[in-house]
């Protein structure tokens, strides 16, 4: 079960929310109507601690599609099924420095650069053990639901429209099949990948999913140990270097916690043993990251000094929570 975090955290989320309400920069993703026609004023934030403390502000219970954030959890499933070396045989872990849908494969091996770009995520989908693609997607949805602590659904309209406009992803998949890095059927694997992108979540769900990573694979809402702490560490590491498209370096410098964003405007970020944060704001910058959500994380990171490389004594969140508990 979740419990309320102290008002000092709730108030801070609300303050950041209210302060950023005037920031209206950015544009909606426009490659399919369900994304280009979304209400651009939506803005939600939620935080969840690994022991189940929860606080939220704004539109934290409005549903939107996971898009690229799903890549973290399919990676977790591939790691569960194959271990780190098994996954590394098929996909790299280096930031590509190129856009998320770039056609760049490692010379010699044909491996995509990392699991956070589309090519790498299509390969991690193919690595999920299953005897059919329906079973493969059921396992992906099961993993996403276990991390959210509730049964998630697919937005079939978004899925259909993704499928109808997937020429580039299909080309990537064929390219990888010809290079030998994708060994499953192109159309079936693409459907699994696009269906996971179309899974509906709220910012509140994202906070719980991020807190599952922060808690070493244990969901704070259900207490289920969804995957091992080693898998959580590997996923967080790859999020830290590759999760924010080609702004990952800037993000690590200014916010300092592993993160993943998606083209619908969602962001998750997590810090081991400290917190998971989920945000939603559909207006994106030119790298595909939500402008307001990035600003919110910068402000919260500064307020709570949660940077992964900060000195432990400088971290404010544990102190704030301890103080409130006294
Ligand atoms: N469905 C999108 C694609 O694969 C997801 C992109 C994203 O969120 O970065 O093109």
How are the elements arranged and paired?
Elements: E1 3-4, H1 7-20, H2 33-36, E2 44-48, E3 53-58, E4 64-65, H3 70-88, H4 118-127, H5 133-148, H6 156-164, H7 167-179, H8 186-197, E5 200-201, H9 203-214, H10 229-242, H11 248-254, E6 259-261, E7 266-271, E8 275-280, H12 291-304, H13 317-325
Parallel strand pairs: 1-3
Antiparallel strand pairs: 2-3, 2-8, 4-5, 6-7, 7-8
How is the largest sheet built, in terms of strand order? 1-3-2-8-7-6
Secondary-structure class: alpha+beta
CATH C-level label of the largest domain:
Alpha Beta
- Nearest-integer average pLDDT: 94
Radius of gyration: 18 Å
CATH homology group of the largest domain: DD-peptidase/beta-lactamase superfamily
User: How much helical structure, as a percent, in the residues?
Assistant: 40-55%
What key attributes describe this structure?
single chain, 326 residues, alpha+beta, Beta-lactamase, 2 domains, six-stranded mixed sheet, two-stranded antiparallel sheet, 13 helices, 8 strands, binds glutamic acid
Summarize the structure in short.
With 326 residues, the protein is α+β, with helices and mostly antiparallel strands. It is 47% helix and 10% strand.
Can you offer a commentary on this structure?
The protein is of the alpha+beta class and 326 residues long. It folds into 2 domains: 3-67 and 201-221 and 231-325, Beta-lactamase (3-Layer(aba) Sandwich); 68-197, DD-peptidase/beta-lactamase superfamily (Beta-lactamase, 3-Layer(aba) Sandwich). The chain contains 13 helices and 8 strands. It has helices at 7-20, 33-36, 70-88, 118-127, 133-148, 156-164, 167-179, 186-197, 203-214, 229-242, 248-254, 291-304, 317-325; strands at 3-4, 44-48, 53-58, 64-65, 200-201, 259-261, 266-271, 275-280. The strands form 2 sheets. The chain has a 6-stranded mixed sheet. A two-stranded antiparallel ribbon has the order 4-5. Strand 6 and strand 7 form a beta hairpin. The longest helix has 19 residues, at 70-88. It is globular, with a radius of gyration of 18 Å. Residues 67-68, 100-101, 118, 162, 169, 197, 262-263, 288 line the site of glutamic acid (GLU).
């Amino acid at each position: 079960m979740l419990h309320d975090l102290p008002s000092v955290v709730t108030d801070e989320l609300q303050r950041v929310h209210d302060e950023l309400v005037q920031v209206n920069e950015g544009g909606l993703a426009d490659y399919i109507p369900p994304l280009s026609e979304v209400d651009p004023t939506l803005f939600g934030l939620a935080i969840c601690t690994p022991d189940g403390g929860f606080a939220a502000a704004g539109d934290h219970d409005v549903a939107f599609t996971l898009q690229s954030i799903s890549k973290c959890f399919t990676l977790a499933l591939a790691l569960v099924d194959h271990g780190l070396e098994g996954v590394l045989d098929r996909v790299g872990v280096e930031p590509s420095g190129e856009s998320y849908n770039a056609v760049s494969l490692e010379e010699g091996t044909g491996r995509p650069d990392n699991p956070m770009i589309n090519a790498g995520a299509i390969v991690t989908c193919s690595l999920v053990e299953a005897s059919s693609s329906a079973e493969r997607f059921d396992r992906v949805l099961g993993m996403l639901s276990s991390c959210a602590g509730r049964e998630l659904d697919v937005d079939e309209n978004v899925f259909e429209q993704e499928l109808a406009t997937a020429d580039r992803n299909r080309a990537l998949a064929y390219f990888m099949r010809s290079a030998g890095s994708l060994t499953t059927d192109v159309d079936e694997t693409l459907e699994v990948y696009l269906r996971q992108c179309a899974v509906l979540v709220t910012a509140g769900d994202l906070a719980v999913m991020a807190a599952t990573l922060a808690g070493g694979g244990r969901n704070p809402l259900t207490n289920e140990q969804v995957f091992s702490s080693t898998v959580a560490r590997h996923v967080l590491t790859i999020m830290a270097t590759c999760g924010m498209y080609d702004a990952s370096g800037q993000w690590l410098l200014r916010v300092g916690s592993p993160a993943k964003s998606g083209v619908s405007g969602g962001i998750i970020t997590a810090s081991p043993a400290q917190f998971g944060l989920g945000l939603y704001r559909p207006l994106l910058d030119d790298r595909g990251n939500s402008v307001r959500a990035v600003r919110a994380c910068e402000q919260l990171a500064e307020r709570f000094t949660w940077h992964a490389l900060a000195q432990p004594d400088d971290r404010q969140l544990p102190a704030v929570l301890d103080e409130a508990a006294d």
